[in-house]
Amino acid sequence: MTSHKPRVVIIGAGFAGVEAAKKLGKHGVNVLLIDRHNYHTFIPMLYQVATAVLYPHQIVYPLRRLFRGLPTVNFLQADVEKIDFDRQIIYAKNIAIDYNYLVIATGSRSQYLGVTGAEENSLPMRTLTEAIAIRNHILSCFEQAIKVTDEAEINRLLTFVIVGGGATGVELAGSLNELIHSLQKDYPNLNCDRARVIILQSGRLFPSYPEELGSYTEKWLRRHGVKVHLNSKVSKVTPEAVYLEDDTAIFTDTVIWTAGVLAATPQMKQSVNTADKDKIIVEQTLQMCGHKNVYGVGDVSYIDSQELNGVAQEAIQQGETAADNILRQMDGKLPKPFDYFNKGRLAIIGKHAGVGKIGKFALKGFIAWFLWLEVHLLYLPGIRNRLGVLFNWLKYYFCGEGASRIIISTDALMDDRERGRDREERGQGEI
Amino acid sequence: MTSHKPRVVIIGAGFAGVEAAKKLGKHGVNVLLIDRHNYHTFIPMLYQVATAVLYPHQIVYPLRRLFRGLPTVNFLQADVEKIDFDRQIIYAKNIAIDYNYLVIATGSRSQYLGVTGAEENSLPMRTLTEAIAIRNHILSCFEQAIKVTDEAEINRLLTFVIVGGGATGVELAGSLNELIHSLQKDYPNLNCDRARVIILQSGRLFPSYPEELGSYTEKWLRRHGVKVHLNSKVSKVTPEAVYLEDDTAIFTDTVIWTAGVLAATPQMKQSVNTADKDKIIVEQTLQMCGHKNVYGVGDVSYIDSQELNGVAQEAIQQGETAADNILRQMDGKLPKPFDYFNKGRLAIIGKHAGVGKIGKFALKGFIAWFLWLEVHLLYLPGIRNRLGVLFNWLKYYFCGEGASRIIISTDALMDDRERGRDREERGQGEI
Question: Which residues of B touch A412 (CB under 8 A)?
């Protein structure tokens, strides 16, 4: 199908893709946004779903609703299978979509760094479903622990290991540590002091923050009972243990993997230049080398000599630049280079404590914690979500309990997935 | 393990089981409540989760939290495998639990009435997960419909068939009909008038209500676009169609099965007398024939010459009676017969319309709708849930949209289920 107005296809509805679609939609450009989910996920708050502070629906927003006010933005729920740059066509199951401009905003995926058994035996936390799975798993460990009598097994069930000491790993460790100790009143017959969170990091905590903040975080976590193992490299993960390179074994039923990411590059018919971590190399204008009408934004792309850390702000600003540059191209102008304006970074490490860096200022403690809550509440899409999150935070910080600690069985969902697969196989057509 | 104080084991945390546990807990009796889920489900509102009016967590309540104030009530998340009445032991995976008194409150399951393909090709709606699966499936049908060009396939995707014209089927039909028409603004390129809800019923609608209410409902649903097929018996369900006994075929990708229930009787080592629908026959005191210390309550049991319909009120009152009778037995007194006090029944059929019967009065229209909302809000456990539900209802009845229309992918949950299975297989011990 071809349309008269040029069509911009955006693959991926993360921070970068959504921002580009919004900007183009506001200028009346014909946009097709494609994602495998029908919602946008606010990734920075995933760990609060995993630790039952927030409800799953509170950190996602339906994409069709997000773009209701922008009639030229269309959405398609699909898995992109391949891109053909020469013919300017994207293939999904039984569908071929042509484009005039393309924005690749497919984000990242977990990197297991070649560690034996890591992918099979650890839980990732990159999607909403994975965060729910972690919540279910943690609560199930407690339900299981009160049923068994073997001391070693109880210890294994109540030991929670987080691999990776970046922002995700640290935030999760702090929040999980609070969860497991607040569970005491639900399990009066279980000694919850036996439960422990262990964080493993190959170097120091928060490697992309000033060293001072890393050591502050380390002390804070230790003081609150988290076991922090620095300079520890994981060599193997089994269903019952994590092994370190010095042959130490930590027996556990729960390994959450937050160490490292790879670009989630879609399959492409033509080969493209990639940098470290499979990232697509793009020019300073975010255009793909050799394809002036294709942009790479967010975690999936690499810009030479720019120091970026894969945070939401970078993706949002790149999405905006890509949209601006497409608008310029449509007007016959030359695209401009991407210029990142660093508004600062913040991370929570526990109740009333955070760390951050804004401009030259390193922040820590209460002020960083409070700013984190403010900023994330502001950026979260949807008034209903903001109100709900605020309510849960008040409940959590004053009463020690945010969301219901429910374990939703997945039997019936499985069947529907099978159905879904059948249905998709029958699907056909072109857009 | 034996304890000095007599132990009451309750299997099933539905309305009957929870009520019995509460009453016994308030009297300081040693209770062990067992359920396969860690939460209580407010079944009468399941259909509002299936149609995205409410969020899943709003109609469930964590059992451990429910009983925090009653220290003698313990909870165990487990699947009961077998009951041995002679040895007074219940077996779950790797666990054996002895009891002095037992309350069987295991509820009901779907009955497919021997219809070929019904179990494989239709969606049940008896648990929270099943309701979520229905919501996901309905929304996926719309996402799929905009991708295909074949007219017959679009019709099949947008045809939603509900089998069963009792309260569940009718409430679901009305709510689903509202959902599919409100989706027009999310799918501007799809003609949502093509979407239709069909309800199939072997006799008349609401067979357990006065005939006047059945015909009122029928007219109301027809006026709002629902296709009502009365006196229609389903003979076969395939992945693409429902066949009626007169050989009519209705082509559809969605069949929701609400017709008929069977008792969800646990496996028992000794044979027991059962009535119609596999129900355990109990005496007027709710005691199992021949086992004076075993009670059968709620949907799982049958009491001779009592006219009951399987509604929440009956289960609650039976749970209360069983608890009273156990307390009487502990005091050396004789149990009293169950005496049902019918407070009335209510059902919603759509926006601002309901039907009901309170005492001799048949209610219909706005007043029945309003009463339904009031009563269900009052009975729902938890203030947070009540506030949330009230908020969603206001949003739904004033803005046409209650909960977010998100399709949560289930890939990661599956893996955790597998893990759960492994873990359980390793589990052992006695309580």
Answer: 124, 127, 129-130, 132-133
Question: DSSP string of A212-276?
Answer: HHHHHHHHHHHHTT-EEETT--EEEEETTEEEETTS-EEE-SEEEE-S-EEE-PPPBSS---B-G
- Which pLDDT band holds residue B429 (cuts at 50, 70, 90)? very low
Q: Which residue has the higher pLDDT, B323 or A306?
A: B323
Give the span between the Cα atoms of A296 and A286, in whole angstroms.
Answer: 6
Task: Tell me the mean pLDDT in the region B355-372.
Answer: 92
- In this structure, what token pair is assigned to residue A205? 């905590």
> In this predicted structure, what is the pLDDT of residue B94?
87
- Report the C-alpha gap between A263 and B308 in whole angstroms: 60
What is the number of residues in chain B? 431
pLDDT tens for B89-127 read 999 988 999 999 999 999 999 999 899 999 999 999 999
> CA of B43, closest CA in chain A: separation in Å?
15
B309: pLDDT confidence band, cut at 50, 70 and 90? confident
> What distance in Å separates the CA atoms of residue B357 and residue B352, rounded to the nearest whole number?
17
A363-367, B70-74, B421-425: least confidently modelled range: B421-425
Q: Name the phi and psi angles at B292, rounded to 5.
A: -65, -20
Q: Decide the pairing of beta strands A249-251 and A241-244.
A: antiparallel
Digit-coded pLDDT (tens) for A110-164: 999 899 999 999 999 999 999 999 999 999 999 999 999 999 999 999 999 999 9
Optimal mutation site among B410, B411, B418, interface A, most CBs of chain A within 10 A: B410
**Could you tell me the two tokens for A318?**
């790149």
Smallest Cβ–Cβ distance between A185 and the set B68, B127, B130 belongs to B68
Q: In whole angstroms, give the CA distance from residue A230 to residue A252.
A: 18
Q: Which residue of A has its CA nearest to B385?
A: A404
B212 in active site: no
Residue A69 CB-density burial (10 A; 0-12 exposed, 13-18 middle, 19+ buried): exposed
Q: How far is B65 from chain A (nearest CA, A)?
A: 7
The pLDDT of A228-237, averaged and rounded, is: 95
Is B136 in CB contact (< 8 Å) with chain A? yes
Closest by CA position to B49, among listed B145, B115, B136: B136
Chain A residues with CB-CB distance to B189 below 8 A: 74
Q: Which two tokens stand for residue B59?
A: 């109609």
CB-nearest partner of B144 from A56, A410, A423:
A423
Dihedral (Cα; A17, A21, A23, A28), 10-degree rounding: 160
- Give the chain B residue nearest A413 (alpha carbons): B133
ipTM metric: 0.89
Structural domains in chain A plus CATH codes:
7-110+261-330 (3.50.50.60), 112-259 (3.50.50.100)
CB contact A306 to B (< 8 Å):
no
The single residue of A119, A151, A171, A374 carrying the catalytic annotation is A171
Tens digit of each residue's pLDDT (9 = 90 or more) over B382-406 = 888 899 899 999 988 888 888 888 8
> In chain B, which residues have their Cβ closer than 8 Å to the Cβ of A253?
423
- pTM attached to this predicted model: 0.91
Q: Give tens-digit pLDDT for B162-188.
A: 999 999 999 999 999 999 999 999 999
DSSP B194: G
* CB-based contact B406 A62, cutoff 8 Å: yes
Using an 8 Å CB-CB cutoff, list chain A residues near B404: 39, 57, 60-62, 65
